[in-house]
Amino acid sequence: MRILLIEDDHLVGDGIQLGLTKQGFTVDWVQDVESAQSALKTDQFDVIVLDIGLPRVSGLEFLKKLRAADNKIPVLLLTAKSSVEDRIQGLDSGADDYLPKPFALGEVAARLRALQRRSQGRAVATLKWRDLTVFPDSQKVMLKEAEIDVRGKELRLLLFLMEHPHNIYSREELESSLYGWNEGIESNSVEVHVHSLRKKLGKEIIKTVRGSGYQLGEE
Ligand code: CA
C-alpha cells in the first residue's frame, strides 16, 4: 500500500515514515500542501495521511479542494489531541477517519488498512487467492496449512497485487508501488520478485500480460 504523508513536523513525519515502512507500507513524505499537490499529479497513492496544521495552506483547505475536485482517495487526518472542533471540521470536509496525536504507530497502520479495505469494498482483513491466505496485519503468508517465508519488497508486491486483484500493472507502476522516492530502485527488481513469488507460491500466482505487465492470477 502506498501512502502519501503530509506532515510538517520532522519528528512526527520521520517516525511515521520509518514505522510504516517497517510494517510493509511504501511511504512518501511531503511537508506542505504545494508538494502534496505535485506528488498527486505524478504518482498513484492508496491513502493520504494528512496533518491539519501545515505552513501556508492548512490540511483542511487542502482536503476541501481535493474533494471539490472529486478526488475520492481515502484520507486519514492527524488532529491535535484535544481539538474536537478539528475532528468535526475534518470529517465534514471529507476526511474518512482521524487519529488524535499522540498516537501509536500500530493504530495508524491498522486504520490505514481499514480505510483501504473500505475503499475497495472488502469487509475482511485477510486477503485470499485460491489456497493462499495473506494476513496484512501480522505479515503472515499461508499456503494451505504451511507458512511461507515472504517478506520485504516481495511481500509488498504480493500484497499490492492481492489488494488490486483485477488490475493489470506495468513494471513501472509496480516499481513505484514498491519504492518510495527515497529508496533507490534496483534494476530488474520487479522481475526478480515475481520470479521468486512464483517459485514459492506456484507459477499461477502472477500472470504476465503480454505487452502490458502483470496481474494477480485468475481465481
Ligand atoms: Ca503540523
Task: Supply Rg.
Answer: 18 Å
* CATH homologous superfamily placement of the largest domain: Response regulator
SSE series:
EHEHEHEHEHEEEEHHHEE
CATH topology of the largest domain: Rossmann fold
C-alpha geometry: globular
Query: Given the structure, what is the number of helices?
Result: 8
- Can you identify the CATH class of the largest domain? Alpha Beta
Strand order, sheet with most strands: 2-1-3-4-5
What order do the helices and strands come in, and which of them pair?
Blueprint: E1 2-6, H1 10-22, E2 26-30, H2 33-42, E3 47-51, H3 59-68, E4 75-79, H4 84-92, E5 97-100, H5 105-119, E6 127-129, E7 132-135, E8 140-143, E9 146-148, H6 152-163, H7 171-178, H8 189-201, E10 206-209, E11 213-216
Parallel strand pairs: 1-2, 1-3, 3-4, 4-5
Antiparallel strand pairs: 6-7, 7-8, 8-9, 10-11
Bound molecules: calcium ion (CA).
Calcium ion binds near residues 51, 53 and 54.
Give me a quick take on this structure.
The protein is α/β, with parallel strands linked by helices. Helices cover 41% and strands 21% of the residues.
